[in-house]
Amino acid sequence: MLEFKNVTLKYAKDTVLNGISMKFEKGTINVITGNSGSGKSSIMKLINGVIPHFTKAYFSGEILFNKKNIYELDIAKRSESI
């Protein structure tokens, strides 16, 4: 399971995600939709580690994969598992 808990993301002065919480259960297909600039790509960048490792942004909250903080997992192992 992949879980976002109270995730906020800001680029400079722009708040892209504001306190979002959601779960993606194993074996399910999920769709994220929204207008341009609503944070869809930013969600993927948080999951794959581009943010905060390669893109400067303010991030708060938790992103868990099988109840473990994804930022404590090795990037290669995370990419292989998710």
Elements, N to C (H/E): EEHHEEH
- Please mark out the parts with pLDDT under 50 across 5 or more consecutive residues, or reply none: none
Which structural class should the secondary elements be placed in? alpha+beta
> Over all CA atoms, what is the radius of gyration?
12 Å
Let me know the CATH homologous superfamily: P-loop containing nucleotide triphosphate hydrolases
CATH class value: Alpha Beta
Average pLDDT = 91
At the fold tier of CATH, the topology name is: Rossmann fold
Shape: globular
Number of beta strands: 4
CATH architecture identity: 3-Layer(aba) Sandwich
Count of runs of 4 or more consecutive helical residues: 3
**Main sheet, how many strands, which sense, barrel?**
4 strands, antiparallel
Range of strand content: 35-45%
What would you note in describing this structure?
With 82 residues, the protein is α+β, with helices and mostly antiparallel strands. The chain has one domain (2-80): 3-Layer(aba) Sandwich (Rossmann fold). Helices cover 24% and strands 38% of the residues. It is built from three helices and four strands. It has a four-stranded antiparallel beta sheet with strand order 2-1-3-4, with helices on one face. Strand 3 and strand 4 form a beta hairpin. The longest helix has 9 residues, at 40-48. The chain is globular and about 35 Å long. The chain starts with a strand and ends with a helix.
